[in-house]
Fold:
Amino acid sequence: MTGIEKSLYRMMLLLIAGTAAVGLFVEGPAEALREFLVLQWSPSRLIHDFTVTGGPGGALLNAALMAGLALLLIRINGVRLSGPTMAAVFTVMGFSLFGKTALNVFPVVVGVWLAARTAGKAFKAYIMIALFGSALGPLATTLALEIGLSGAGAAIIGMFGGIAAGFVLPSLAMAMLRLHEGYNLYNIGLTCGFFGLFAAALLAAAGRDVPITVVWNGAPGPAMALLIPVFSVVLVGWGLALEGKGAISSLRELMKLTGRLPSDFLDMASPGAALLNMGVLGLIGSAYVALLGGSFSGPVLGGLLTLVGFGAFGKHPRNSLPVMAGVFVSTLLFGKSLTAPGPILALLFGTTLAPLAGEFGPLVGFAAGFLHLVLVERTGAWHMGMDLYNNGFAGGLTAALVSAAMEWIRSNKQERTR
Structure:
C-alpha cells in the first residue's frame, strides 16, 4: 500500500471504532450487545429503523461491524481503497442502521462469489457488486421470517434466496448500467430493484404478499445527531492534513467534474480534495436535517453516510444541490411534510442523480430531483421493500428518462449546427 492508502485505512478504522464506541456508550455495553443480537434475526425490509427494532446502541454496533467487515473484504481481496470502495464502505455502514446485518448479507455475498467462480473470474472483480448488492439482504430475512415459514426450513429457504439473488446480480448490473448510461450513481440499487420486482411477484403469486410497514425513530437522541457532523469534521481535517492548501485548490477542480459513472474523485482530483468534499457534503446534509427539525433516525443517518461516501465517487455540492432543490420544491408543491420519511430520504438519497446536473446543468438536475420524489414514493411497493436502495431503483428509472431526452436534444442540436 502507498502512504496515502495507509492513511485512508487509519482514518476509516478510526471512524468505525468511534461508531462502535458510541454504540457501547449510549446504553451501556451489555444492553448494546443484547440489542445487536436481536437485530441479527429481525425483519429488515424498508423501512425498519434498527434504532427502534434493536436500539441505538445495537444499531451503531451493527453499523460498525458491517463497515469493518466490508473494509476487511476489500483488504483481503487486494482491492485498492479508492473512491468506489470508500463509497461502498460508508453505504454499507449507513444501511446497517436500517436493513443490513451480517446474517442477511452473507448469502448475497456468497451468491456473487459463486457467480465470479462460474465466470472464471477472481472475486475481486465483482467485489463492488457484492458490497453494494447487499441491498438485497432483506430478501433473505423476508423469506425466513415474514412469509409464514418456521424452523430450519425457513432459514434454509432464506439463505438460498439470498444466494440466488447474489448469483444473478453481476449479469443484471451491466444491463442496468446501459439503461441510464452512468447517470444514476446507485446502479446496483436499480439492479436490485429490478430483481426485487420478480421476487415480489413470485411471493404475491404464492399468496405470500407482505405489506410494507414503517418503523421510524422520531427522537433518536443527541449522540445520533452529532455522529455525521463529527465524521465530517474528521474528514475535512484529514484531507487538510494530507495535502494542506493543495486539497482546497484540488477541490475547486473536483467541483467541475460531472460525476457520471465511473468518477473516482481520489484519482480524478486528489485524496485530500475527495475527503474535503465528503466532509462538506456531510455538513450540508446534517445542517438541512437540523434546520428542518428532522429526526436523525437510523435511515436518515444512512442517507447522510451514503451522501458522504459518494463524495468520493460522483457527488459534490455543485451537482448535488440542484437535485436536492428539485426534491424540496416537489415536496412543497405536492403538500408533503419535509420531515416525513419519504421526502427527507428522497432528498438525501436522490443525489444519486447528481451526474445529470453535472452533465446537463442545474435546471436538468432540478427537474430530475422534482420527478424523483413522485416516483420513489411508488417504487418501494413494487419490490415489497426488499431492495434497500429504493432511491437507486427510482433514480435509475428517472435517469433513463431524463438522460434519453437530453441526449436526443443534444444530438439534434449538434446535427443542426453542422
Q: What stands out?
A: The chain has 20 helices and no strands. The chain has one domain: 107-412.
